[in-house]
């Protein structure tokens, strides 16, 4: 990182909050990072151990050497298009604060549509919930946070992801109602569940390298790659659902854009009923709701 970023001189004295934010914002803008000023403020607040609001009205506040060094290291990572959530080490989802790492996908706001559909569809209060491909545990933990009588199991192929989801359960006071294990989808499970959740890999394999660099270079490809047609994981999950669901249970699957029809056909072939589909805030059909016929 050069000492003279593009965009002109910064008005605040060197070594102050304003100067750090100005220079960092210029570097981030030059690297085609969206919202460069906001991201600079997030990084500097983290480096200094303060809330963002503490920086807004204090442009001439000095930045001590140790926070300045932390900020420079974090900024270099962001300029290399490492996701902000990985740099900060956590991400908000629903009402939760979740630890994240390169072992898992970063929870996204679109997936909250799955939580909304699940809460509207969950048939009984004291429910058993299963989350297949749990990652950070975000879907399962969000549902459990709203249903205090429910208990959940999360499964992920990655032992590191399953361990991280367990930490997130404890982090959010849900450790007593959630269990996480490493496994290949539902292969190691017995018993039935009132609700099955999943945000499976659904990106076409050939499209993964062309995703934005924050995703293609840093998030785990096993959690993105849906096979040649993007439906590989859905085939596995849908085939297992008749043996996983209680008689009045339901499943809510996250969809990629334009996948409703294809996944619905798979569900019909497995003798499952389509109970509805919920769109996200961008109008994309995002959460497919299935049940037993």
Automatic annotation (TrEMBL):
Q: Which reaction does it catalyse?
A: L-glutaminyl-[peptide chain release factor] + S-adenosyl-L-methionine = N(5)-methyl-L-glutaminyl-[peptide chain release factor] + S-adenosyl-L-homocysteine + H(+)
Q: Which residues bind S-adenosyl-L-methionine?
A: 133-137, 156, 185, 199
Q: What class of enzyme is it?
A: transferase
Q: Which residues participate in substrate binding?
A: 199-202
Q: Which InterPro entries match?
A: DNA_methylase_N6_adenine_CS (IPR002052), HemK-like (IPR004556), N5-glutamine_MTase (IPR050320), PrmC_N (IPR040758), RF_methyltr_PrmC (IPR019874), SAM-dependent_MTases_sf (IPR029063), Small_mtfrase_dom (IPR007848)
Q: What is this organism's lineage? A: Bacteria, Pseudomonadati, Pseudomonadota, Alphaproteobacteria, Acetobacterales
Q: Which UniProt keywords apply?
A: Methyltransferase, S-adenosyl-L-methionine, Transferase
* Organism of derivation: Teichococcus coralli
The UniProt GO MF terms for this protein read: nucleic acid binding; peptide chain release factor N(5)-glutamine methyltransferase activity
Q: Which family does it belong to?
A: Belongs to the protein N5-glutamine methyltransferase family. PrmC subfamily.
Protein name per the record: Release factor glutamine methyltransferase
| Methyltransferase among keywords | yes
Residues forming the Release factor glutamine methyltransferase N-terminal domain are 23-89
Function according to Swiss-Prot or TrEMBL: Methylates the class 1 translation termination release factors RF1/PrfA and RF2/PrfB on the glutamine residue of the universally conserved GGQ motif.
